Amino acid sequence: MRRGLTLMEVVISSLLVGTVLVTSLASTASWRRYHVENREREIANRLAEELVSEMMCAAYIDPDQSSPQAFGLDSGESIANRSTWDDVDDYHDQTETTLRDKFGILIPDAIGYLRTTTIDHADSASSSPGYVITTDLSAKLRLLSVTVHSPSGITVFVNALKSNLDTTFAPADIHLQSVAIEFADGDQRIIRSAGVMNHPQVNP
Amino acid sequence: MKRIRKRRGFLYLAVLFTCLIVVATAGAAFSISTSRLRSEESQLDAARALRAAHSELHRIASTLSTTDLQWRTSSVTGEPSSVCVGIGGSRITSILCDGENDGDLTNDLSDRVVVKCYATVRNASRGVSCTLQPLARPLQLLEHSITCGGDIIVSAGASLATTGSIRSGGSVAIDTSAVASAAQWKATTAISANARGEAIVLGQPIAMPTESLINDYIEIGTMIPNSSLTIVNGTLTMKRKRVTATINDVTTLDEDSIYWIDALGLPLDICECRIEATLVVINSSRITITKANLWKPPAAGAAALITSSMIRIDGIERELVESTTSTNFNPPASSYRGIADTDTTDCYASCLEGLVYTPALFEWTANNPPNSMVWRGPIFCGTLVVGGPMSIEDDRRSQLDPPLGFLRYEEMQIVRGSWRRLDMPQ
């Protein structure tokens, strides 16, 4: 009669196993959600950073103009083709729903993302974070802001300052380098780009 | 009975052991997974730090050029700034260094400046640097034929003529019997009504180049010893001398053709000389340019005469004649306009080209119109008194290629190719 398991043992063991299983499943689901969100945040950050790098390498004012003009695209520049954009204010108030790199190539892992850019005049300030937004057209700084929304609603905001002293980029320079990597199975394609900061001296 | 007792609680242990394995496995999986996340976050933080450092560098560069003109004296070269909050909530510190490796930001306004910025976002830190080059622009005053810090006085019977403009930091007084014409007159206080040409009273003073530029020339120039000159009746005299890029009768050749004389308080007369150099004179009670001279700067637009003493133009002659002076001014070692010889039969039109600077009086007392000389180049002086026929040809070459001391450094420019990633300081 006393051989085998008591009812109490079976009940308590089942409760323990059940608790561990339920906790594990809940954690797994939560972890899975967390992982997806982080993946999206990572992609969103990368998309924002790459566009900021691209903007940092653009000229401060249009090479065809001698003084700052109204922000936005100028004649001969196409909204669908960023390779025709030649100064940083061309990026003002732009929204992308289908994300492409500067050369018009579709970014494979950015489907469903939304990217918006704004440019503001800024002046240096002694108080944190070191600048104030202004309406002065002759301001020496521009605040570049990029916002990326992921498919699940995660928002990433990145900004940077660019001064009008950076005349290190000539119109003929290569401002951006982009690399595409395709894997052997053909399933995955990665495109990464970065601004080219240094150029040889014109007159060494 | 003993066997039954041994089997009690067996399942509890088995379940607890199983739970332990499950929890340990889950923990290990969590740790592996979060390490990847931590790595990704670390990379993102590094990118944010780099962008923050880059932005701060742009911000500092714009500050140096506009809002803090005294930054060269207020910044201690190589000393890190206090930590402040930068873009994206980053912690920022920056360092200004002298780009010329002499460790002094104040000794030369044209010195390059290396700006280093370090930013930290959480545990990630990045540093970047670039070199800023002061952008030299010609002094705006170089657009005038004559720039006078004080008054301009054209005395009775005298004349002053130029096709360029004249700027006075005081007033322009022209005697009723004098004739004075210029394309444009600008003065701070008043201009005589008989000035010929457009007259504008601006009301604002002018900022003349300071005397410190004389030391800049002396630093790079070669001294002309007094012993190579003669003293006649208490006047130091530079007479019938040749000072060019390839021949020098008074001292050793200077590669920049900049020479300086310490007159030891004596007046200095310069006459019947061929000079193709910048002459700097200090400690002279008066410099007199007299008779005929063939005086040009070492390069187009450069300075011909820089001094702190008063300058007088007196007793000038139209031609420099070799036979009269018994001097060959175009020997084989130093041709003139491509022509050289060994005789003393040539003659040259008397002229002075290039910029002339004195913060003191510039006095034109030569009063013999047929014996005029060609004067081509801007004059900077403290006060101008014209007592004879003075004519200046407008020459903008100094504006196109400004001489040392006649540049203004107001803006900085990031030097092409100077961006660098930096290791974090220890």
Tell me the layout of helices and strands.
The complex is a heterodimer of chains A (204) and B (426).
Chain A: H1 7-56, E1 94-96, E2 114-124, E3 131-134, E4 141-149, E5 155-163, E6 176-182, E7 189-195
Antiparallel strand pairs in A: 1-2, 2-3, 2-4, 4-5, 6-7
Chain B: H1 2-7, H2 10-66, H3 71-74, E1 84-85, E2 91-98, E3 113-121, E4 124-138, E5 146-148, E6 152-154, E7 159-162, E8 165-168, E9 171-174, E10 179-187, E11 190-191, E12 196-201, H4 212-220, E13 222-223, E14 230-232, E15 235-239, E16 242-243, E17 258-262, E18 268-271, E19 274-276, E20 278-282, E21 287-291, E22 294-296, E23 303-307, E24 311-316, E25 319-321, H5 322-325, E26 347-349, E27 351-353, E28 355-357, E29 361-364, E30 374-376, E31 379-381, E32 383-386, E33 389-392, H6 397-400, E34 407-414, E35 420-422
Parallel strand pairs in B: 5-8, 5-31, 6-9, 6-32, 7-10, 7-33, 8-10, 9-11, 10-12, 13-17, 15-18, 16-19, 17-20, 18-21, 19-22, 20-23, 21-24, 22-27, 23-28, 24-29, 27-30, 28-31, 29-32
Antiparallel strand pairs in B: 1-2, 2-3, 3-4, 4-34, 4-35, 14-15, 25-26
Coarse shape of chain A: elongated
Q: What share of the residues of chain A does DSSP label as strand, in percent? A: 15-25%
Number of distinct helices of chain A: 1
Number of strands of chain A: 7
Quick synopsis:
The complex is a heterodimer of chains A (204) and B (426). Chain A is 25% helix and 25% strand. With 204 residues, chain A is of the alpha+beta class.
Note down, in words, how this protein is organized.
The complex is a heterodimer of chains A (204) and B (426). Chain A has 1 helix and 7 strands. Chain A is an alpha+beta fold and 204 residues long. Chain B has 426 residues and is of the alpha/beta class. Chain B contains 6 helices and 35 strands. In chain B, a hairpin with a 5-residue loop joins strand 1 and strand 2 (91-98). The longest helix of chain B has 57 residues, at 10-66. The mean pLDDT of chain B is 89. At the A-B interface, helix 1 and strand 5 of A face helix 2, strand 1 and strand 34 of B.
